[in-house]
Every structure is written in C-alpha cells, then in structure tokens.
UniProtKB/TrEMBL annotation:
Protein family according to the UniProt entry: In the C-terminal section; belongs to the HisA/HisF family.
GO BP: L-histidine biosynthetic process
Annotated compartments: Plastid, Chloroplast
Organism from which the protein derives: Ostreobium quekettii
InterPro entries referenced in this protein's UniProt entry, alphabetically: Aldolase_TIM (IPR013785), Class_I_gatase-like (IPR029062), GATASE (IPR017926), His_biosynth (IPR006062), HisF (IPR004651), IGPS_HisA/HisF (IPR050064), IGPS_HisHF (IPR014640), Imidazole-glycPsynth_HisH (IPR010139)
Domain Glutamine amidotransferase: start-end pairs: 9-201
Alphabetical UniProt keywords: Amino-acid biosynthesis, Chloroplast, Glutamine amidotransferase, Histidine biosynthesis, Hydrolase, Lyase, Multifunctional enzyme, Plastid
Protein name: Imidazole glycerol phosphate synthase hisHF
PRFAR binding as annotated region, ranges: 356-357, 393-395, 465-466, 491-492, 514-515
Top-tier EC class: hydrolase
Single GO MF annotation: lyase activity
Active-site annotation: C84 (for gatase activity), H189 (for gatase activity), E191 (for gatase activity), D235, D395
Coiled coil: none
Length: 540
C-alpha cells in the first residue's frame, strides 16, 4: 500500500523545508503535509523540521491546535523525528525571543551559545557526534560529521540523560541528538549532511532496511570538532544567447580576452550539473552567485529559480544563492521587498541568501547618518529566516595609503607594500560586480552588517580573483578578527596549500574557490587531504 511509504511532514511555512522533502523523496518515500491536527493523529511517521525562531514556531503550532496532538503522539512513542528547532521545541523553554515556553517533554531550557568563548556564533558547519549510548539512528555514523547551523543549544541536566543519544562539542558539550523509543530529534540537519545524513534519515524511516551508502564514506579519524569548510562557488549569468551558464572571471572580467571573437562570456559548464558534481566530490557547501542580479529583476529570473530548484533535488549540502537580493520595483511599478525576493529563493531550495551591493548602500547610509536602519533587506530576512540564512558578500579592492593619519578609513599595515612603497592599506567596497567603488571599508562593512543581523560574511577580493596567487591573508585576517560571525575567505586559490594556509594563518571558518575546481586543476579531495594532513579539522 502507498501508505507504507508515506511520511507526514509538519511544515508550518516559516522557512525552507524543500530540502527535507527532497531528502525524503530521494529515499523513496512520499510526503504528506499536515493540514490539520487530525493529520498528526493519523501519521505513521512524522517529521518536524523546525525553522525560524522558537517563539514564532511555538505561536504557530499553538494557534493551529497542534501542541496537544503532538505531545500525545510523542508520549505514545510513535515514530517522530524533529530537526533543529524541532529538537529545541521538545524542551521546557528557550531564552530566544525574550523567553518562551516549549512543549516541556525534555527537562532543560535552550540558551544561546556564549560568544565570550571566542567561537563564531552561529555555529555553522560540519561537526562530530559523541554518542552516549548505542542507537539504531546513529549506528552507522561513527566519526563522520553532520551539518549544524544554530545559535541556540541545549545542555545536559538532571533528567535529560534518559533522552540524550549524542552530544557535540563547540567550546562546550551541547545536546545534538535525543531519542527515546521511536522518538528522535537532532540539532543538526540530516537533509543537509550529505550521504551520512541521508543514512540517518533512512535509519529512521526504514528501521529494517539496509544501511545507506553512507557506510562507504570515510571516517574522519582523530581530528574531531567543527571542520573548516571548503566551498565550491559557481558564478552564473546568461551568455550572449540568453542561456544560463557557469562563468568565471579574472578580477571580475568574465569575457574571453579575444577581441576579434567579440569577447563572449566565458562558459565553464551548466549550473545544475556542475553543482551536483561538486556535491559528489565532497564540497561542504555550494554557492551560486547570479552575477548580473544587480541589474535584473530576480523574480522575473525564472531560469535562476529553476536552477536552484533542480540543484536542491540532488545536492544534500547547504546551498547559498546570491545576486539581486534587494527590494525592487518591476516594470508595472509594483514593489517587491527584499524579503519577498529572498523567500522565492528559499522556497526554491536555497538555505542561505547572499546580499552584495545592497549591503554596501545600507551600511554607507548607516555610517554617514549614524542612524541604525530599521527595515533593511538584511534585517527583514534575518528576522524571519534567522541570521544564519543571511550572508553578506563583499567585493573589496585594496587601496594603498602612504600616511594612515591622512586617511578617513581604518588602515592596516601591510607586508606587501604598494608600487610607491606604501606600507598601509584599506580595502574599499564595490557594488555592481566591482564596477563601482563606494566610500566604505570592508572591515567597517563587516562589523556593521553583523550588527544588522547578517550571520556570515563571504569575503571576496577583486585583486586576487582568478589569479591563483592565494587568498589575501591580510584582508581575511583583518575582517575575520573584527567580527564574531563566520567569515568565508574567497578569491585567488590556486593550489590546495592555499586553503591550508588561510586556515592556519587567519580566523576564516571556510574558504571558497571557483576557477580551479571548474577547470579541474585541483580536486576538492586534494584540498581536504592537504588540510587534514596539516592538522586542520576537515570533513573527509
Ligand atoms: O550585488 O547583491 O547583486 O550580488 C552580486 C554577487 O555577484 C556578489 O556576490 C558578487 O560577488 C558577485 N559578482 C558580481 N560580479 C562578479 C564578477 O565576477 N564579474 N562574482 C561577481 C564574484 C567572486 C567569487 C569567485 C571567487 C573565487 N566572483 O564568487 O567565485 O573570487 O574565484 P577564484 O577561486 O577563481 O579566484 P549583488
């Protein structure tokens, strides 16, 4: 009967659960959405992917009358899997949103990670599970890492031990998996944890089945803890005949050098195919940048939404989409908020959106007036989807300074002096894909967007882009030590050692490359092996 393959999904519309749907389908099951409380009562197995903030989630499930049926379902020990916030809601309450009550099934209260520990918050990335007791769910996981993204966490306390299946260390031990009988929940996202995550979901959905292919993934060995991430980036735009292609520039110039051929847009492949290849080759995340998004209206850009949708069907690691995330007025004069634009991408399967030009305009205004904006694109999206869903992408250029006393921007000493022997520099932000410089420094921008609610910085560097000379370590160190949110180093990777170097010498949490992967000059696996061989925690 088809009912045997049915999974009931509690999606209350607060964020991206498309990846959970895709993962369930990939495992050969069908999704049935909860429309009313009776659907919870009737479920054979229920998955609850909590998204958004604790308070909002509790309000919605309370208004819809789901709290009691859920509590009864769980207390009757029927098959349940809560993801992320879906774990947190089982506890007594949370400090998030000024304090709110949870379902009260597990003793303890959810609190924010302490930034005083010096680790980036949110925790974003791949970390280990320290299993407290054997369980069917985690039987095949061992040392393999899974993907977390969260600012709040539960810690063990008297009474929680009967629930705790695994903890994870991020400056301290927090509860990463709970389980009792047929009821499970995990702080990490199995649907974003590659084949290891699919294996965990399969163990839940099909208790009698064979272990998933995860069993062939290598173990991570002795280097435990949050891994430094390796990200593959695909710059996407329409070529001259209007097809979306992956392109790649040198210092942001994406056209072929040959004048006689009319300098066509470089074509390095098809977006969905390439993204899928990078997932299979072990990329920890995949990023798409719609590099002409700043001038087109993204909601009219259906091919891009379609690319995201098709990619998310086969790529089970986090997916970021950037380009054109801002408020728009279309040809008919109808206005769209940045939140509406971002929501279209989240609904299509993006896990994060990345804001470029608009962040520069927002911060320029903020620094000039000293007045904190109230409804900027960063704030709108962060409030609804959470800080972890908002990346700010910076496209800076290095500016040399002879006398820092004469420069209105914060200057940094440099070991790479300028052409006239200048010993100082700052990094100037640009907009519109590097076409226009603005009067804001990259370090100031990063700090300001952190205040506004961005959860991560994607730090490009126009001087290094496509050069293969390595990351601008001075830039990466200046920005990553100025903020507490994670920083992704980007631009200039030429060999695996460049990744190892940026992790050894700066506080970067992740490093991204494009050209070397597209041209198959370097394999993701070689990058990971070099990092691991140098003692950097790596997801192999
Ligand atoms: O301004 O919000 O519409 O966002 C536009 C986005 O598109 C920004 O994130 C901006 O970085 C990006 N973008 C715009 N123009 C270009 C271009 O190349 N002409 N690409 C561009 C950015 C930089 C990286 C690249 C790394 C690594 N490309 O994405 O992948 O530099 O490259 P490498 O490993 O080959 O050195 P908005």
């Amino acid at each position: 009967a088809s009912g045997d393959r049915e999974v009931t999904l509690l999606d209350y519309g607060a964020g991206n659960v498309r990846s959970v749907r895709n993962a369930i389908r990939r495992l050969g099951f069908e999704v049935k959405d909860v429309q009313n409380a009776q659907d919870i009562v009737n479920a054979q197995r229920l998955i609850f992917p909590g998204v958004g903030s604790f308070g909002h989630a509790m309000d919605v499930i309370r208004e819809r009358g789901y709290v009691e049926p859920l509590r009864e379902y769980i207390e009757a020990n029927r098959p349940f899997y809560g993801v992320c916030l879906g774990l947190q809601l089982l506890f007594e309450g949370s400090d998030e949103n000024g304090g709110c009550e949870g379902m009260g099934l597990i003793p303890g209260c959810i609190q924010k990670f302490d930034t005083a520990m010096g680790l980036p918050v949110p925790q974003i990335g791949w970390n280990n599970l320290d299993q407290r007791r054997p369980s069917r769910l985690l039987q095949d996981v061992g040392d393999r890492r899974v993907y977390f993204v969260h600012s709040y966490r539960a810690v063990e306390q008297p009474g929680s031990e009967e629930w705790v299946l695994a903890t994870t260390n991020y400056g301290e031990d927090f509860i990463s998996v709970v389980g009792r009988g047929e009821v499970y929940a995990s702080q990490f996202h199995p649907e974003k944890s590659g084949t290891t995550g699919l294996g965990i979901l399969k163990a839940f959905l099909q208790p009698e089945g064979d272990v998933y292919e995860a069993s062939t993934a290598p173990m991570n060995g002795h280097m435990r803890g949050l891994a430094k991430r390796v990200i593959a980036c695909l710059d996407v735009r329409a070529n001259d005949s209007g097809d979306l292609v992956v392109t790649k520039g040198d210092q942001y110039d994406v056209r072929e050098k040959d004048e006689t051929a009319g300098r066509p847009v470089r074509n390095l492949g098809k977006p969905v195919d390439l993204a899928t290849r990078y997932f299979q080759e072990g990329a920890d995340e995949v990023t798409f940048l719609n590099i002409t998004g700043f001038r087109d209206f993204p909601l009219a850009d259906l091919p891009m939404l379609d690319v995201v949708q098709r990619t998310s069907e086969g790529v089970f690691v986090p997916l970021t989409i950037g380009g054109g995330i801002r408020g728009f007025k279309d040809a008919t004069g109808k206005e769209y908020t940045a939140l509406e634009v971002a929501s279209a991408y989240f609904r299509s399967g993006a896990d994060k959106v990345s804001i470029g030009s608009d962040a520069v305009y927002i911060v320029e205004d903020y620094l000039k007036t000293g007045i904190m904006p109230e409804d900027s694109s960063i704030q709108q999206i962060s409030e609804v989807y959470g800080a972890q869903a908002v990346v700010v992408s910076i496209d800076p250029k290095r500016v040399y300074v002879a006398d820092p006393g004469q420069c209105p921007h914060k200057c940094f000493p440099t070991a790479l002096p300028g052409l006239s022997g200048e010993q100082y520099c700052w990094w100037q932000c640009t907009v519109k894909g590097g076409r226009e410089t603005r009067d804001v420094g990259a370090v100031e921008l990063a700090k300001a967007v952190e205040d506004l609610g961005a959860g991560e910085i994607l730090l490009n560097c126009i001087d290094r882009d496509g050069t293969g000379e390595g990351f601008d370590l001075e830039l990466v160190e200046a920005v990553s030590s100025a903020v507490t949110i994670p920083v992704i180093a980007s631009s200039g990777a030429g060999v695996p050692q460049h990744f190892t170097e940026v992790f050894a010498k700066t506080k970067a949490a992740a490093a991204l490359a494009a050209g070397i992967f597209h041209r198959k000059e370097v394999e993701i696996q070689s990058v990971k092996e070099d990092m691991a061989g140098s003692g950097i925690p790596t997801r192999l």
